[in-house]
């Protein structure tokens, strides 16, 4: 039996993880030059376009050492975004080691550090690697020092490579063998296989990616998912190369896939333990969690006839994205739609883009918000209520207390940007915790922040006020009391539920004024005057007016030129498609996201 090494790559986005992975695959012959397609691990269109790895994947390589010994390498790819931290933790658990890859010109970033700490917590062997040494701007000495400070290794232990030129890759492969311990191989115990990823296939059901921790799985055996107690048969099992390679058994230490006509990803969840029905394990592998959405938004079809299409699209998306949740809701303004829950803002954007791209459905989304815990009086009793839709926040008089989620944010930045970052965090109701000076003029600033203040445009603001240099990482802390109110928007006296938002009382006036101003810009003039008001409960706090106008788009056409006239009319129709009638007022889609586009 050849030895096995299971490892992953920890790197900040753009530090070259995918490129380096491609080189490893090439050198071990896992892919031929002909099959070589840049960045083979990012296999969804969307991922490739955005240059991010959303789902984790795994690939088996046959490494031949310089002495001719053959070793099996399993490279487990992990998602690179803070929204997917749980999936990252499960992928790490499937490994005995991690390559810590740092860009020679960029240095260590916050996201890398949190994943690195998770890996260290899970006792993974860390192999430090400086990548992109070919870059003219490479600062190998400075970055080495950062890595030494971070993990306490020796300067000489840091490998130097270029994923682009292939420099240092052979030494890196040998280091993976030498430094990372092999997995336990207790193949006679009851089966415990960790699910570190699963994808949905229309024809075959869920395809589950596993790392066998103990025991052996044979083809055809009865299997059980321990968290959901669902049972199936392991109809097909195998290894993951570029293609799936069938096999008869998977043993302790190995990585592979299992197919068993599993009807839904809900049954085969990341982090769950797979065992056999005949000789089941007593305890699952620890650490399983149900994923919990953090950010919510309404999703409505622009054309209400598309409601059923939207429902079936969401159903299909959920089949291969177990962390997406949704339920039907109705809005007076927008009609029938759904309230969807996401892991974070990136996840939300991905879902919206897929609805548009893969299902071609025009949707209106409402401003994202977090989930609040509201204590309200009902018949002189305090009742707890979870609110994930601003329009469901009770009126001010009825609310006893509102609790909102807080996060702990860690921001790493060159020290010249400390000022702007602290201003931003202060403005977002942050509590300063501390700052830690690191090597090379970098500082790690820690703040506690209301999550609601971060889901808006915090990340963009952070990037723009630091010329892109600062990086952000956060984790959920707890629910805390907040003086929060529901801010309503009224058009000609009618409240538009889809435009309500929840805000801190101190910010309500400013927000109300700005929202009215922005809506005045976004809502086109109508045939009658439109009053825009912002209100807290029955108290109006801001007001703007859109004057009436008789709209006649063909007026410019001086008669005669029919085709030009038609074009204009068609263009207006196009524009209309993305409008929604709210009462008698036509409101464009952008208006529902107005809060996001304010400075
Ligand atoms: P990932 O986001 O960590 O997967 O990073 P990618 O592998 O997608 O690389 C990000 C960018 O850096 C791409 O434009 C790559 O072409 C470039 N890149 C990756 N490795 C190297 C390297 O060793 N040298 C240079 N000069 N560029 C690299
Ligand atoms: Mg990548």
Automatic annotation (TrEMBL):
GO molecular function: GTP binding; GTPase activity; ribosome binding; translation elongation factor activity
Cellular component, GO annotation: plasma membrane
Claim: Protease is one of the keywords in the record: no
GTP-binding in keyword set: yes
Domain Tr-type G: 2-184
Matching Gene3D superfamilies: 3.30.70.240, Elongation factor 4, C-terminal domain, Elongation Factor G (Translational Gtpase), domain 3, P-loop containing nucleotide triphosphate hydrolases, Translation factors
EC identifiers of the protein: 3.6.5.n1
Bilayer topology annotation: Peripheral membrane protein
GO biological process, one term: positive regulation of translation
InterPro entries: EF-4, EFG_II, EFG_III/V, EFG_V-like, EFTu-like_2, LepA_C_sf, LepA_CTD, LepA_IV
Pfam families attached to this UniProt entry: EFG_C, EFG_III, GTP_EFTU, GTP_EFTU_D2, LepA_C
Binding site for GTP: 14-19, 131-134
Protein location: Cell membrane
CDD domains: EF4_II (cd03699), EF4_III (cd16260), LepA (cd01890), lepA_C (cd03709)
NCBIfam families membership: lepA, small_GTP
Family named by the database record: Belongs to the TRAFAC class translation factor GTPase superfamily. Classic translation factor GTPase family. LepA subfamily. Belongs to the GTP-binding elongation factor family. LepA subfamily.
Record function comment: Required for accurate and efficient protein synthesis under certain stress conditions. May act as a fidelity factor of the translation reaction, by catalyzing a one-codon backward translocation of tRNAs on improperly translocated ribosomes. Back-translocation proceeds from a post-translocation (POST) complex to a pre-translocation (PRE) complex, thus giving elongation factor G a second chance to translocate the tRNAs correctly. Binds to ribosomes in a GTP-dependent manner.
Protein's recorded name: Elongation factor 4
Organism: Halalkalibaculum roseum
């Amino acid at each position: 039996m050849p030895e096995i090494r299971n490892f992953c790559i920890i790197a900040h986005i753009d530090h070259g993880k995918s490129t380096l992975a491609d080189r490893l695959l090439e050198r071990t012959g896992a892919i031929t030059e002909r099959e070589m397609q840049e960045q083979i691990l990012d296999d969804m269109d969307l991922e490739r376009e955005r240059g991010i790895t959303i789902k984790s994947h795994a690939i088996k390589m046959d490494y031949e050492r310089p002495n001719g010994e053959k070793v099996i390498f399993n490279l487990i790819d992990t998602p690179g975004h803070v929204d997917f931290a749980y999936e990252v933790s499960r992928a790490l658990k499937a490994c005995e080691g991690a390559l810590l890859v740092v860009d020679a010109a960029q240095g260590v970033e916050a996201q890398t550090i949190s994943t690195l700490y998770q890996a260290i917590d899970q006792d993974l062997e860390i192999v430090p690697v400086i990548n992109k040494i070919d870059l003219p701007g490479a600062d190998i000495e400075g970055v080495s020092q950062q890595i030494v400070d971070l993990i306490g290794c020796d300067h000489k232990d840091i490998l130097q490579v270029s994923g682009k030129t292939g420099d240092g890759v052979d030494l890196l492969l040998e280091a993976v063998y030498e430094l990372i311990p092999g997995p336990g191989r207790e193949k006679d115990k009851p089966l415990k296989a960790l699910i570190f990823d699963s994808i949905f296939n229309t024809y075959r059901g869920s395809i589950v990616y596993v790392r066998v921790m103990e025991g052996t799985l044979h083809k055809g055996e009865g299997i059980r998912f321990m968290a959901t107690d669902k049972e199936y048969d392991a109809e097909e099992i195998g290894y993951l190369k570029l293609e799936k390679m069938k096999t008869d058994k998977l043993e302790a230490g190995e990585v592979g896939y299992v197919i068993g006509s599993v009807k839904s990803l809900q049954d085969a969840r990341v982090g769950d333990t797979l065992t056999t029905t005949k000789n089941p394990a007593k305890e699952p592998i620890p650490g399983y969690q149900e994923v919990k959405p953090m950010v919510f938004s309404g999703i409505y079809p622009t054309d209400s006839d598309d409601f059923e299409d939207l429902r079936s699209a969401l159903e299909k998306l959920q089949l291969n994205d177990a962390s997406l949740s949704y339920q039907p809701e109705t809005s007076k303004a927008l009609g029938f739609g759904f309230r969807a829950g996401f892991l974070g803002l990136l996840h939300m954007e991905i879902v919206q883009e897929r609805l548009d791209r893969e299902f071609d459905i025009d949707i209106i989304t409402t401003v994202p918000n977090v989930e609040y815990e509201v204590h309200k009086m009902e018949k002189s009793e305090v009742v707890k209520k979870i609110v994930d839709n601003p329009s469901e926040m009770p009126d001010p008089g009825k609310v006893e207390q509102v609790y909102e989620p807080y996060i702990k944010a860690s921001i790493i930045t060159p020290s010249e940007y400390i000022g702007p970052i602290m201003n931003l965090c202060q403005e977002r109701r942050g509590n300063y915790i501390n700052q830690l000076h690191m090597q090379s003029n970098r500082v790690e600033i820690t703040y506690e922040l209301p999550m609601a203040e971060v889901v808006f445009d915090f990340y963009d603001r952070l990037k723009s006020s630091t010329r892109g240099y600062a990086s952000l990482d956060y984790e959920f802390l707890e629910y805390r009391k907040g003086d929060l109110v529901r801010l309503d928007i009224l058009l000609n006296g009618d409240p538009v539920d889809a435009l309500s938002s929840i805000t801190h009382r101190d910010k309500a006036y400013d927000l109300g004024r700005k929202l009215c101003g922005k809506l005045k810009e976004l809502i086109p003039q109508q045939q009658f005057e439109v009053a825009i008001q912002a209100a807290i409960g029955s108290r109006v706090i801001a007001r703007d007016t859109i004057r009436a106008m008789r709209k006649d788009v063909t007026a410019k056409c001086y008669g005669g030129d029919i085709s030009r006239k038609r074009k204009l009319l068609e263009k207006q129709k196009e524009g209309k498609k993305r409008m929604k009638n709210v009462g008698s007022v036509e409101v464009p889609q952008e208006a529902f996201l107005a809060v996001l586009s304010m400075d």
